[in-house]
Amino acid sequence: MNDPSRMIRVIAFRTPFVAFESRSWHPPLNVYETDDGLVIVADLAGVSVTDLQVHVKPRLIVVQGQRQLAPPPGLRRIHRMEIGAGRFELEVPLTAPIDPERSEGHYRNGLLEIILPYASDPPQHVVVIHIEGGL
Questions:
Q1: Element (DSSP H or E) covering residue 53
Q2: Of 3.60.15.10, 3.40.630.30, 2.60.40.790, 3.40.50.970, which CATH number belongs to 20-70+77-134?
């Protein structure tokens, strides 16, 4: 019975569903190699700089944070929801050792840029870098 006139299509839900709950998401990022080291750029629009943590190890970068989205007042229906919200964690393994002590981060216009200079003799400890800037 493949009669198209008998198919049921759901066009919209009549009640809002829980779409603003906290769940993990994965921000897009770019990784560049330069003559002096690596540069990582993550798209974190809407994330407060106070909600960011960056851990730099000689061969691994971990970026953690949270983006909070609140439903608009009087929400009746969601037609499209593509912007991720909630907690996130990015782990970026590195192909060459970097110097965590000389690493720096900048956050401007929703983009987090992490500059990671190469190391000739990398230290074996973790460094949490201070992120400069804000939205």
A1: strand 53-57
A2: 2.60.40.790
Would you say the pTM of this structure is higher than 0.85?
A: no
Q: CA-to-CA distance for 6 and 8, rounded, in angstroms?
A: 7
Q: Are 67 and 90 in contact (CB under 8 A)?
A: no
Two tokens at 11?
A: 């066009």
Cβ 29 vs Cβ 90: under 8 Å: yes
For the stretch 33-91, pLDDT in tens is 999 999 999 999 999 999 999 999 888 999 999 998 888 898 888 888 888 888 999 99
The pair of structure tokens assigned to 14 is 């009549």
| 104-108 and 111-117 beta bridge pairing | antiparallel
Report the b/e string of 74-96 with b at 16+ CB within 10 A: eeeeeeeeeeebeebebebebee
